[in-house]
Amino acid sequence: MNQCKVMKDGYLEKRSNGLLQLWKKKRCVLSEDGLRLYDCKGESSKEMRFEQMTTLDCVEYKRGLVYFTIVMNGGKEIDFRCQQEGTAWNAEIALALVRFKNHVAVQTGRNRHLSHLGSCGEGDVEL
């Protein structure tokens, strides 16, 4: 996610995978390519690229918090929560994911069209 435009920077809480499933505060940076999570000290990070995400699900609002789940390719679910103020993280991530998937679909369609033109010989010039 280097050199990508930062769309949102702030804090989310991520539910741990451990037995107790504790909520851990993470600094998060949303960019055009995905979401990067930093530990509290900012020393280590985890990258969640949009190409690895399937969807954003399970949005709930409880006691001033927004709870949501990011579903990764392969079905892995990662739970988050944040304060319910302003434009919530879930909305920003969902919109960025849709933009990314639309861009990929347009590129795929364009590549198929160009490939089809090349195989039909329409791009050939006869002298």
Task: Please tag this protein with its features.
7-stranded antiparallel sheet; 25% helix; 127 residues; cytoplasm; 1 helix; alpha+beta; 7 strands; PH_domain; PH-domain like
Question: How would you characterize this protein structure?
Answer:
By secondary structure, the chain is α+β, with helices and mostly antiparallel strands. The chain has a single domain (6-118), classed as Pleckstrin-homology domain (PH domain)/Phosphotyrosine-binding domain (PTB) (PH-domain like). The protein has 1 helix and 7 strands, in the order βββββββα. The protein has one helix spanning 89-120, and strands at 6-15, 23-31, 34-38, 45-49, 53-62, 65-72, 77-83. It has a 7-stranded antiparallel β-sheet, covered by helices on one side. Strand 3 and strand 4 (45-49) form a beta hairpin. The longest helix has 32 residues, at 89-120. This is Pleckstrin homology-like domain family A member 3. One of its GO terms (cellular component) is membrane.
